[in-house]
Write a structure and sequence with these properties.
Layout lengths: L1 H14 L3 H31 L1 H12 L3 H10 L3 H10 L6 H17 L2 H33 L4 H55 L3
Helix pairs in contact: 2-7, 2-8, 3-4, 3-8, 4-5, 5-6, 6-8, 7-8
């Protein structure tokens, strides 16, 4: 553990000041990925646990008992049930429009964090390039003051340039993989939500 911390401190020191925003980006990526992983896990568990009551809520809708459908949907853990209960509780919109509005809001909540990862995928390499430029500038300044006969000082600037470039790429790659996974998962959840809301609309239309 001490060796890892010492290595991180060395890399931060040799990478120069641009390493600090890159390190901040890496911390944000870690926090967002952890949050999204927990969100996906809880969503899957809630969907599975709430499936029985979701089916009963649809049966109540088909029977024309919207109050019972709302109570069943709100009682269950299903994310679709929460959308249905919210839509049934809205008097300002027709049921189909309220259902669509609540579904869009739920999908927006599921997408939170993906925009942050998308930004860091682009930002981290740009910060690495900025570190490269500052490192090369520092190298040329040292070459101008010390001359080319003393490569020791120049090596520090070159190291700064290479370390920040590598760090920016590592953070970007680390954000890109969960970003693409999150997009795939969100598309799947969008299709599942659309199917569930279509079933709710048909159940309401079938009511006597």
């Amino acid at each position: 553990m001490d060796g890892a911390l010492e290595l991180i401190a060395t890399v931060m020191r040799r990478g120069g000041p641009v390493m600090w925003p890159i390190a901040l980006c890496s911390l944000i990526v870690a926090l967002v990925v952890l949050r999204k992983a927990l969100q996906w896990a809880f969503h899957a568990l809630a969907e599975r646990a709430g499936a029985p009551l979701w089916g009963k809520a649809l049966d109540a809708l088909r029977a024309g008992d919207r109050q019972a459908a709302k109570a069943l949907a709100a009682q269950g853990a299903s994310p679709y049930g929460a959308v249905l209960a919210a839509a049934l509780g809205r008097a300002d919109l027709p049921f189909a429009e309220a259902l669509e509005a609540e579904a869009r809001a739920a999908l927006r909540r599921l997408a939170r964090g993906l925009g942050v990862l998308d930004t860091i995928v682009t930002l981290a390499p740009m910060l690495g390039i900025l570190g490269t430029v500052t490192g090369i500038i520092a190298s040329f300044d040292l070459m101008g003051s010390m001359g080319v006969d003393d490569p020791t000082g120049v090596a520090g600037g070159i190291a700064e340039a290479l370390i920040t470039t590598a760090a920016g790429l590592v953070v970007s790659i680390g954000a890109l993989i969960p970003l693409n996974a999150g997009r795939v998962w969100h598309r799947a959840q969008t299709r599942a939500m659309e199917a569930a809301m279509t079933a709710a609309e048909r159940a309401a239309e079938a009511a006597p």
